[in-house]
Specification:
Elements: E1 4-8, E2 17-20, E3 32-37, E4 40-51, E5 64-65, H1 74-86, H2 91-98, E6 105-113, H3 115-126, E7 140-141, E8 147-149, H4 157-165, E9 171-172, H5 173-180, H6 184-192, E10 196-204, E11 210-216, H7 227-238, E12 242-244, H8 245-249, H9 255-263, E13 267-273, H10 292-302, E14 309-315, H11 321-334, E15 338-342, H12 350-360, E16 364-367, H13 373-384, E17 390-393, E18 405-411, H14 428-439, E19 442-447, H15 452-459, E20 464-468, E21 479-484, H16 485-492, H17 500-511, E22 515-520, E23 528-531, E24 548-550, E25 564-566, E26 573-575, E27 588-591, H18 595-605, E28 611-614, H19 622-634, E29 639-642, E30 655-661, H20 674-686, E31 697-702, H21 708-714, H22 718-732, E32 739-747, H23 750-767, E33 772-785, E34 788-797, H24 800-816, E35 824-828
Parallel strand pairs: 14-19, 14-20, 15-17, 15-18, 16-17, 18-19, 21-31, 22-29, 22-30, 28-29, 30-31
Antiparallel strand pairs: 1-2, 1-4, 3-4, 3-5, 6-9, 6-10, 7-8, 11-12, 11-13, 23-27, 24-25, 25-26, 32-34, 32-35, 33-34
C-alpha cells in the first residue's frame, strides 16, 4: 500500500496538498520534494508524513524526493506555521522564503498549442470570413479578436508562435522566444486567450560554485620555451605557483599557449570550490575597550544566554552599540552557540561587515538578496553544516538554519526595511522575537530611535530595556540649529534650496579641511513636471503617480535629449517632451528638487569641493556603496549629498557638519506614523556628525519649526517625543494601543477591482466583529501600479484575536464570492498604507 504525505506548495492557497509517496521513498517532515501541480512541477516542503489516503480524490504521486534528511528543523517549521497564521500568508510561500535554494533545482518552462490555438491558426491560414480585414480596422483578426495578420498580410508574432507549436511537441520557452521573437507579454496574452498552455519541469542540479586554477608542476624539466610560454610560467611562479584562469586571461596571454603547457605537463588545471568574498570596508578599525555603559549592557545580555529573553537596547547615536554586539556574539560563540545579526540593508552597512570579517573571519556567513542564487545556496549550506556560526544579513537572514542558536541581534530595529512588502508580509523584527522564543535564545533589539511598539513593550515590562545615554569617550551629541524656511523666504525674497546658514557653515567646514553630509531625501532632479497652461501633471502610463525628472550625468546634462522622466514604482521611462501632451503648451514647470539637483547646486556653490552622491541612482549594488564609502573614509570626498541612505550605520570620523533639507515634507502625508519617521530620520542623520575627535553640528531646514517631532529631534530627546506621540496613538487607538491591517484588492480591470472591494466591504458592514473598526473600501492612495488597479480597506482592532478572526472571515467570504485569493493582499501590522 502506498503511503501519503502533506506538502506545502508555493501557491496563493491557504492549504497543503496530499501526495502519494513513491515506492522505496520516505520523505521526512521538513524535506523538499518535487510535486506535480496542474501543468507545473513545483518545489514543496513536506509538513506531515503517514497521513491517511484521501477519499474524495485520487492523490497524485510525488515526482522526486530531493532531501534525504529534513532541511528545516522543528523550530523553523513551527516558526513558519506561526508566520502563516499571524500574517495570513500561505504556508507554502512562507517556506519558500525560508529556503533560498532554488539554485539546486533547474526549472524549465515549456509551451504547447491547444485546440483553441489550432482553430485560430487554421482560420488565419484559410482566410475565413471572420479573419478578413474589416473596413474599420484594415487588419485580420482571429476568432476571439486578437490580431493574427497585419494589414499588409505579413504574419504576426502570434501566428508565428502557433505555427512553431503546430507539430504538437512542447517547446522550451527560451527556444520559442528566440525562434519567433515573441515577448513575455505576447506569450502571457496567448495564455489568457487559451491558445497555448504552459508547463514546467524541475530536476535537481549541482549548485556548487567552482573556479579553475592553473597550477605550476613542481620539479618539471623545462624544454625550450617560447616567449609567451615563459611569460605564463613566470606569472605563475610570481604568484606562488598558481593563478585562477579568469585572472590569467586578464593578462591577455593566449589560452592556446596555456593548453600547450598543459600537454607538455608543465602546468595542470585544477577545479576548486570558488572563494566567496564577504565584502565590506577592508581594514575596518576594531572597537576600543568597552566603557562602563557598554560593559553593563554586555553583562545584562550575557547573563541571559541559554534562555529566552528579549532586550531593547536604547543607545544614542555613537554610544557604541556595535561594539556590544560584537562582544555578545563572541560570548555566544564561546558557549558553543551561534548568533544572527540582522541589519536593515546589507549594502548600507559595509563597515559592520568589515568589522565582522575582521573579528570572526571564515566563521561568518552572509545572506541577502544581492547574492547570486548559487552564492545564497552556498552560504545557506555553510550555516546548515555549522561551518558559519555567525550570520549577518537582511530580514530573510532571520530564517538562517543556525544550529544551537543562542543570540539574535536586530540592529536599527525601528527601520521599516524589516517589513517585507510582498507575500509573506512579515516583519523580521517581530519574527526575530518569536524565533528566539522557540529557540530559547536571547534577542536584542537595538536602536537610537526605537519603534514605539518596542518602546511600549519595554514600558510594560515585556522587554528589558538597556539604556546607553552617552557617546563613546564622552563625546558630545551634535548641536542642532533649526532654520525656519518661511522666514528665510521673507528675508531673501527668493525660494532657495539651501539656506544662507547652511551654505556658510558648509563652506567653513570645508575650509577647515573637515567633511560635511547633506540629506536631501528625494531621488532624481525634480519631483514632477507640470504644465503651467493646463495644470496637467506628467504621469506614468502604468501607475497613477507623477514621473520623476532625471538629468543625465556628465557633459550631456544640458541637452534635453539626454534627460528622462522615470517612474520609481515600475521603472517606466520616457524622454522629456518639448510640449505638454494635453494642450501642447511649451510652458512646462519642473517642481521640487531631488538629490541630483542638490549635487548640481552644491557644485555651483562650492566649485572646489570633492562632491559625492549617494542614492539609488548612483548606488546599484553593495560594491558601488563600498567604493563610495571608501572614498569618503579616505577623504577623497569631502561633501556628500544623498537620500536617507546616508543616515544608516555610517561611522565617518571626519564628518563634523550635517545638513537636513526637505526632511519634514512627510509631516503633511496622511500617515499616522509620519511624525515618528521624521523624528527617526532627523535623529539618525544627525548622529553622523561629531563621531570623531571634533564636535559636530547639524543644520535642519524646516517649514515646521514648532512641530513636536522636529523640536524633540533637535534636542536628541526621545523620551519627550515618545510621551507626546504615545498620547496621540492611545487617543486614536493606533499601534501600539491597537492592531491594524491593510486589505488591498487589486485587478488589471478597474471594474473587477471595484466590484470585489465592494463585495468585501458589504460583508464587513453586515458582519463586522465586535471590537473591529473598518475604514473603506476606497481607492488606494496610489490607485494604479504596474497597470493594476487598487482599492483597500483598513482594519483597526483592540485585540489581535479579533483582527485575525475578522480577516479570516473576510477571506472565507471572498473565496465563496469568487474573488481570487491572489487578488487580495492582507498586510497585518502594515507599515505603509499606500
Amino acid at each position: 500500500m502506498p503511503s501519503y504525505c502533506e506538502v506545502a506548495l508555493p501557491v496563493p492557497l491557504d492549504r497543503t496538498f496530499t501526495y502519494a509517496v513513491p515506492e522505496f521513498e520516505q520523505p521526512a517532515r521538513g524535506a523538499r520534494v518535487i510535486a506535480p501541480f496542474r501543468n507545473e512541477r513545483l518545489i514543496g516542503v513536506v509538513t506531515a508524513v503517514g497521513v491517511a489516503e484521501p477519499t474524495e480524490f485520487a492523490a497524485k504521486a510525488l515526482e522526486a524526493v530531493i532531501d534525504d534528511e529534513p532541511l528545516l528543523g522543528e523550530n523553523l517549521l513551527q516558526l513558519a506555521e506561526w508566520i502563516a497564521g499571524y500574517y495570513l500568508a500561505p504556508l507554502g510561500e512562507v517556506l519558500r522564503t525560508m529556503l533560498p535554494l532554488m539554485a539546486e533545482v533547474r526549472r524549465t518552462v515549456y509551451y504547447r498549442i491547444t485546440d483553441l490555438g489550432r482553430d485560430a491558426l487554421a482560420k488565419s491560414l484559410d482566410g475565413d470570413d471572420e479573419t478578413r480585414p474589416s473596413q474599420s480596422s484594415g487588419k485580420k483578426r482571429g476568432m476571439n479578436g486578437t490580431q493574427l495578420k497585419s494589414s499588409s498580410g505579413a504574419q504576426s508574432v502570434e501566428q508565428t508562435v502557433l505555427q512553431r507549436l503546430s507539430a504538437g511537441e512542447r517547446v522550451k520557452a527560451s527556444t520559442l522566444r528566440t525562434a519567433t521573437g515573441a515577448s513575455l507579454q505576447t506569450l502571457a496574452l496567448m495564455l489568457r486567450r487559451k491558445w497555448v498552455a504552459r508547463e514546467t519541469s524541475a530536476v535537481e542540479r549541482d549548485a556548487r560554485r567552482t573556479e579553475r586554477f592553473a597550477v605550476l608542476v613542481e620539479n618539471a624539466r623545462l624544454p625550450v620555451l617560447t616567449k609567451l610560454q615563459q611569460a605564463i610560467l613566470a606569472e605563475l611562479a610570481a604568484r606562488d605557483g598558481e593563478l585562477p584562469l579568469a585572472e590569467l586571461r586578464k593578462k591577455e596571454l593566449p589560452s592556446s599557449t596555456l593548453q600547450t603547457l598543459v600537454r607538455r605537463e608543465l602546468v595542470r588545471i585544477e577545479e576548486r570550490a570558488a572563494a566567496f568574498r564577504l565584502g565590506g570596508i577592508e581594514g575596518a578599525a576594531q572597537p576600543l575597550m568597552l566603557n562602563e555603559s557598554q560593559l553593563e549592557a554586555l553583562a545584562s545580555i550575557v547573563s541571559k544566554l541559554g534562555e529566552f529573553h528579549p532586550f531593547l537596547l536604547h543607545g544614542v547615536t555613537g554610544s557604541g552599540k556595535t561594539a556590544v554586539y560584537l562582544q555578545a556574539m563572541q560570548r555566544a560563540l564561546d558557549r558553543g552557540q551561534s548568533a544572527i545579526l540582522l541589519v536593515p540593508e546589507i549594502g548600507l552597512t559595509p563597515q559592520m561587515v568589515g568589522l565582522l570579517d575582521a573579528a570572526f573571519g571564515s566563521r561568518v556567513a552572509l545572506l541577502h538578496s544581492a547574492l547570486t542564487p548559487e552564492e545564497r545556496t552556498e552560504q545557506w549550506r555553510r550555516i546548515h553544516r555549522g561551518e558559519a556560526p555567525v550570520v549577518v544579513g537582511t530580514r530573510s537572514a532571520i530564517f538562517a538554519p543556525a544550529p544551537n542558536l543562542g543570540l539574535i541581534l536586530v540592529d536599527e530595529e525601528h527601520d521599516q526595511s524589516y517589513k517585507q512588502e510582498e507575500t509573506p508580509r512579515y516583519n523580521a523584527r517581530d519574527v526575530a522575537v518569536m524565533r528566539a522564543k522557540l529557540e530559547g535564545a536571547v534577542v536584542v533589539l537595538g536602536s537610537a530611535t526605537p519603534s514605539l511598539e518596542s518602546w511600549q513593550n519595554s514600558v510594560q515590562g515585556k522587554y528589558t530595556r538597556i539604556e546607553m545615554n552617552d557617546r563613546v569617550k564622552n563625546r558630545p551629541l551634535p548641536e542642532v540649529e533649526l532654520i525656519d524656511m518661511r522666514r528665510e523666504f521673507q528675508e531673501t525674497g527668493r525660494e532657495q534650496l539651501f539656506s544662507r546658514s547652511l551654505v556658510d557653515q558648509t563652506r567653513a567646514a570645508l575650509d577647515r579641511g573637515e567633511q560635511a553630509i547633506i540629506l536631501l531625501n528625494r531621488r532624481g532632479y525634480s519631483f514632477a513636471v507640470i504644465c503651467r497652461a493646463c495644470g496637467k501633471k506628467l504621469e506614468c502610463q502604468n501607475c497613477a503617480i507623477a514621473l520623476t525628472h532625471h538629468k543625465p550625468s556628465g557633459e550631456d546634462q544640458i541637452a534635453r535629449a539626454g534627460q528622462r522622466l522615470e517612474c520609481h514604482y515600475c521603472g517606466y521611462k520616457r524622454t522629456v517632451p518639448s510640449k505638454c501632451p494635453e494642450c501642447e503648451s511649451e510652458h512646462l514647470y519642473y517642481l521640487g528638487a531631488g538629490s541630483q539637483q542638490g549635487e548640481e547646486r552644491l557644485a555651483e556653490i562650492f566649485p572646489g569641493a570633492r562632491i559625492g552622491r549617494m542614492d539609488r541612482d548612483t548606488v546599484r549594488g553593495r560594491h558601488d556603496l563600498e567604493h563610495l564609502l571608501a572614498r569618503l573614509h579616505s577623504g577623497e570626498i569631502n561633501l556628500l549629498v544623498g537620500t536617507q541612505m546616508i543616515a544608516k550605520g555610517h561611522d565617518i570620523h571626519g564628518v563634523t557638519l550635517v545638513g537636513v533639507v526637505g526632511c519634514d515634507h512627510a509631516l503633511s502625508m496622511p500617515d499616522f506614523r509620519a511624525a515618528e519617521r521624521v523624528f527617526q530620520l532627523m535623529t539618525q542623520v544627525s548622529g553622523r556628525a561629531g563621531r570623531g575627535e571634533l564636535p559636530g553640528r547639524v543644520v535642519v531646514q524646516t517649514y515646521y519649526p514648532d512641530h513636536y517631532a522636529i523640536l524633540a529631534a533637535s534636542k536628541h530627546d526621545y523620551g519627550a517625543f515618545g510621551e507626546r506621540e504615545l498620547k496621540y496613538r492611545r487617543w486614536m487607538h493606533y499601534p501600539p494601543f491597537g492592531v491594524l491591517a491593510n486589505v488591498l484588492i487589486q485587478s488589471e480591470k478597474l471594474e473587477e477591482a471595484a466590484g470585489w472591494s465592494a463585495e468585501i466591504g458589504n460583508w464587513f458592514q453586515k458582519t463586522t466583529p465586535e471590537g473591529v473598526r473598518v475604514l473603506g473600501p476606497c481607492t488606494a492612495p496610489i490607485a494604479r501600479i504596474k497597470n493594476v488597479y487598487r482599492f483597500h480597506l483598513i482594519l483597526k482592532a483592540g485585540s489581535r484575536k479579533a483582527l485575525n478572526a475578522a480577516l479570516r472571515g473576510a477571506l472565507a467570504h471572498a473565496d465563496g464570492a469568487g474573488v481570487p485569493r491572489r487578488n487580495i493582499v492582507v498586510d497585518v501590522d502594515a507599515q505603509r498604507l499606500m
